[in-house]
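Researcher: Sequence of Flagellar hook-associated protein 1 follows. Predict its structure.
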Amino acid sequence: MGYTRQRADLQSLSTASTTALFSTSSGTGNGVSVVGFARLSDQFLDARMRTQTGQAAHTDALATTLSRLETVLTEPSDTGVAATLQEFWDAWQDVSNAPDSTAARTALLGTSRGLVTQIGDTYRSLESQWDQARAEATALVTEVNSAAKGIAELNAQIRSVLASGGSANELMDQRDLLATELAATVGATVRPQTDGTLTVMVAGNPLVQGDKATAVQISGSHAMAGAIAEPAPSADAVALSWADGTPLVLTDGALAGVVTSLQGSSLGGSIAHAVDQVNALAEHVASSVNAVHAAGTTLAAPPSDTGVDFFSFTPGVASALGLTVAITDPDHVAAGNGVGGALDGSVADAISQIGATATGPDATWRAFIVDLGVTSASAKRSAQVAESARATAASLHLSNASVDVDEEMTNMLAYQRAYEGAARVMTAIDEMLDTLINRTGVVGR
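Model: Prediction complete. Tokens:
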């Protein structure tokens, strides 16, 4: 892996020159000598392969993030948020059908707590995915700096070897492997220099120049709550920069895809965007239900008790985590407005219909899930196309740089035939000398 085939460059040795007036030369050469070993690489194929590698790594990182989001949200399914929401509205309908039933009210409270738990667990799952991506980003930055340092050290060695007239082909192979690794990580491109070194460019700036490497650093909170605090982007948002603090914006490479998934909610398809949707769902459910519930009356004394919120939020935490059921007593559930007495279920019926409205929480959540599915499918197709292009470029690169068995066999046959031709000449000369020395003058004896 990483080996580039080499070829021995041969040069014929001229005949010995003489300065004597009547000296003559036989006109034949003195054979050949090896003047060097050519490294048969194609810089255009190398550049194409690195470009396609960076694009493929970027699209694959985005597709992986979206696929993980789909796994976390588990929609559509019987255990997803949408199914739990429907159970919540159905429980309100049951209360509407039997507003005087304590069992129906108790079941409603249990279903409501289940919805709260479901929303909170979804948030925590997204937070776990964000933490994983944050750790991946940190590891990728470490890999980038390590590879850049390795290329800088190899540049120094190669320049020294070439200056002394030696062959640095194996060192160049090692350097190309590191350059391809950087292409996959940060979309790096390379520029060969006349002294044998490579200048590695990232986002238009040199990451490696000669024997000097510039470090890349990642900043931002290691906690999701701090990194995506609204309004986005947060002051603690995850970002890349050079060692001197200059912002670094990547468009290719796996690191670009991972950082995109960590950044603010304005970037569709990111983990932060999904988190905002879960928080918005919690707020939408609470505000929609509370607006109707507060207008109803409870069964608690006095019967005219109104203005009671069904949901509440814990201050200082994310909406999805802070959502709680404010009511613990079934009698505090406002099923009606008091006009119909204990059998009035108009308020419960109105709440049960919220899920069917075009602007309700269910519709908003479904729109997000559909958008996520479409975006994920598109990202997967883009990743497949990019990977196909990368595989084609890699195949062309390998076909040029790898050892060709057929070519090597052809060269061996050529050398064999040349040896056989030279052997035939020597045999002819040997037979001629044998005839001249051993047989001339023996006629008539």
